[in-house]
Amino acid sequence: MRSLLRQCGGFASSDGVVTQRSERSALGRAAAEERFRIVSANLWNGAADPAALGDLIAGLDADAVALQELTPEQADAVARILPHGQLDPARNYTGMGIALREPAPVRRIGLPRRDARVAHIDWQRPSGARIELEILNVHVQSPNHHSMPSWRALRARRAQLHGLVRYLRASPHRRRVMVGDLNATPLWPVYRRLAVGMTDAALAAARRHGRSVRPTWGPWSGAPRLLRIDHAFVHGVAVADFHVVPVTGSDHSAIVVDLAVPAVALADATQQSIDAHPGHPAYVASGS
User: Least buried of 77, 90, 139, 220, by fewest C-beta within 10 Å?
Assistant: First the structure.
């Protein structure tokens, strides 16, 4: 796959989705400029190709990877690249995990249907920069799911939301990044409730680099992406960049979040949180 990426000048999938050379160059520069990189992806319960997934993660040079709908074959491919963290694969859409470049404790947050995972990072780079933050991986129940009646899905969704809000409110000043498949666009209540007091990383990067936000989900692998339902919210850290890249075989694209290192730019992060308020023009324009 790496030779294919070199030929195309971007990240490519067998579905024919290719990002431009300029985006690939931007991703490479970010790694060289001491960024902490988090990747999040919904793997469509095993449909995402394990070998291509491993190549993608290796090519992105990620520090942490948060995965939803993870199956055993996919977990094996990821663990070969990032051997630390905790991966809990399953074949019933509940597989979750956080893979890490370096050791760090990972635990569950009990929620209905699917527990969230949280990693507590306290690393020091060779340069001496310290990285101390929490990574929270979530997968909110879809309101329409083939395996359960709509009323049950909505009840699980509400209960998950309440549990996540309760967890976030218990430590509102903690430096954290929350990523995952929220099954909610910026116009939906789930997004709005979880975004309170946090920064939407996609919006922050779009303003910083003068570009629009991109959708992350389509109805099948290779389909045009229609909705922005995979998100990254941050608190207490500054967003350096944000990208959306294809995942071979999945109906979701991956999101790539670059944080400034050291992760202490509180003033910048506070301003980003203010700008990401629902009344801000960029927020309104981003609704999918």
Answer: 220
Q: In what order do the strands lie in the sheet with 230-235?
A: 106-109, 116-124, 130-139, 176-181, 230-235, 199-200
Q: Distance (Å, rounded) from C-alpha 260 to C-alpha 205?
A: 12
d(CA 192, CA 30): 29
Band (pLDDT 50/70/90 cuts) for residue 151 is confident
Q: Is the dihedral of CA 61, 230, 209, 237 positive or negative?
A: negative
Q: Where are the alpha helices (DSSP H) in the chain?
A: 2-8, 21-32, 50-60, 72-81, 150-170, 189-195, 201-209, 266-275, 281-285
Beta bridge partners of residue 199, listed in sequence order: 234
Convert the pLDDT of each residue in 56-73 to its tens digit: 999 999 999 999 999 999
Ordered domains of the chain (ranges, CATH)? 2-285 (3.60.10.10)
Q: pTM of this prediction?
A: 0.82
Q: Which contiguous run of DSSP H or E holds residue 87?
A: strand 84-88
Distance between CA atoms of 116 and 139, rounded to whole angstroms?
7
Is there a contact between 118 and 107 (Cβ–Cβ < 8 Å)?
yes
